[in-house]
Amino acid sequence: MATPLVDSTGKPLTTEQIWAQVNWTDKASVQTTFPPYMRELLSFKKAPPKAVNIELFSMKTPFGDRYLLKDTDLVLEANKRQALFGANATGKSLLFRNMNEGKIKDFPKHMLIHHCKEFENHELSDTVLGTIVKAHPFRKVLLQSRRSCRLRLRRLRATPTVSLR
Is the Cβ–Cβ distance between 91 and 69 less than 8 Å? Predict the structure, then answer.
């Protein structure tokens, strides 16, 4: 799994702290800005597995008082869209959250799972597609990287050069 980015006390770095430390001329330094799943993906020497097959998978409620899933198989086929539907309060969102947060033993850390939660009326300022595109963590990093590089280039171009004559 990708090494978490932490300070000297072991506390996770904020996005701002990570960006302040980036050396934009060093590939490894730039990659520290990537989301954990992308850093994990880049650590593979060959193509990582694209499918998930976890046997005897169990998941309890957040309080641990009952099983939502017990001794079942968690299977996600490669290169296929997956959907999960069911009655309210049956653990759908919890399953997605646990996949994203790395709380499912043996679930690949290099996979991005996008959970599109149901929005309240006051959250509907964008289209569904727009919301999904804007929520993509690696896209956010790439856009921020582009802004940062462009700003640095503008500053360099605005700096008077020293003539050797």
Answer: yes
